[in-house]
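User: If only I could read backbone structure tokens as easily as an amino acid sequence. Those tokens are not coordinates but codes from a learned vocabulary of shapes. Could you go through the record with me and say what the backbone is doing? Here is the record:
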Amino acid sequence: MILAAQLSDTHFDLSARNTERVEAVMGYLADLPRKPDVILVTGDITDSGRPEQYQQARLALRADIPVYLLPGNHDDRANFRTALLGEPASTTPINSVHQVGALTVVMLDSSIPGESAGLLGEDTFDWLRATLAQAPDGPILIALHHPPKQVFSPVVDVIALADPGRLAAVVAGDPRIVGILTGHAHSPIATIFAGKPMITCPSTASVLGSEWEVTPPHRVMDYAPDPAIALHVIDENFGLTTHFRTVAMGGWLAEPPLA
């Protein structure tokens, strides 16, 4: 069994609030009797891409297991690279591939500098095809920030991934791909994309309402709920099972509260 924890949309903004929520999540993961094999963070690491926000993220996201990150529409590629990856500043896509036991994790940069919607460019598709051609036999997870499918959010669906059919063709054509992981929607969502599970991770910072909940400009983002994450299990048959977990900021209660 491989256990992959997914965080998303942490939105480090130099406030204590969002940092404390991520620290609570990281503490929960560190205290698990069976720790995850990897932690994946699927975009919008910061709220506005400032260098100081990435320093805040770098400190809060430390762990004794691998932590892999990709950018979202609120991130800045150059500052992401220098602060989180220790690389020279560049605005080229931040794509990466990681081996976690038998699992290959392919992380795609769907951000468009200066825009909220997402797109996988030609250079990213070239990189993706080459990466899949070199990947060993075994399960593959593809992670990106923008959902490539409608999720019935009046906010997210208009700034989702453009031209999702190109990614769908790649996903449908490779039987090793067991699932697609996304962020962006600030909500736990499970659906099917190109015949494979598409799992959208909730945000540690807030909850974004769906079309049956939202009345713009009011009641769009809810900051009351505790932070939440996704835990993905890849079993011995390379099947994908996902659990969503809320991490209570008030701590663990072993007994029900008194009435």
User: Anything to note?
Assistant: The chain has a mean pLDDT of 96.
